[in-house]
Amino acid sequence: MSSRLIGVGVGPGDPELVTVKGVGALRDADVVVVPVMDTGERGRAEATVLHYVGAEKIVRVVFALNERTDRGRREAAWDAAGERVAELLKAHPAVAFATIGDPNVYSTFTYLAHTIGELVPGTVIETVPGITAMQDLAARSGAVLTEGTEPLTLVPVTAGSAVLKGALGGPGTVVAYKFGRQAQAVVEALRETGRLQDAVWGSALGLPEESIQAADALDGGPLPYLSTLIAPAPRDGGRGGKL
Fold first, then answer.
1. Alpha-carbon radius of gyration of the chain
2. Angle, helix 183-192 to helix 161-168, in steps of 10 degrees
């Protein structure tokens, strides 16, 4: 029998936003892997998982989640993490990997699954979808993501603020992930494209340190790395005008 590696989306931080199917996958797995930085601090995924399974079932695996410049160090960390998970798969029929948000949206799980496919051929790869930060921010702030025929564009600002500015020039809602370190550039892009007034940003959603504010209140100072921005599509206020 082939072992299974299940990527489980555990949402943006609020443990109540883990789906029933996600909780079931975490509890049914033999072990639950959670990614941690080499500093050893507890991440959001681990904190969320601990609401549903005991600590004895959790295996903490170091990923270079905070490495942005040293590719060699990052690759070495990926290799070590992949080998550790491969060992677990050889010893257990079902290994779950908890990832914040959704395992198929800018997730660590994507790279792990690719690595495991090479290290342990025949492993069955599955995913359980999770609620994303943009969905949670929309719910908490009252921002509507899409109406009628509007497109929705998701941009990781790690790709550069120029990519964000290009998206903001279009007709639909734009969501920006991981923009905390480029907050000033993001504010400038919103202002230049006339999208600042209705935009909203949030960080640490569902956690005690949660912050949700209008984007026009940003002063350009640094924000948490995992900050999320929603710039709603320009709308005339009419009901059903874009159907």
1. 19
2. 30
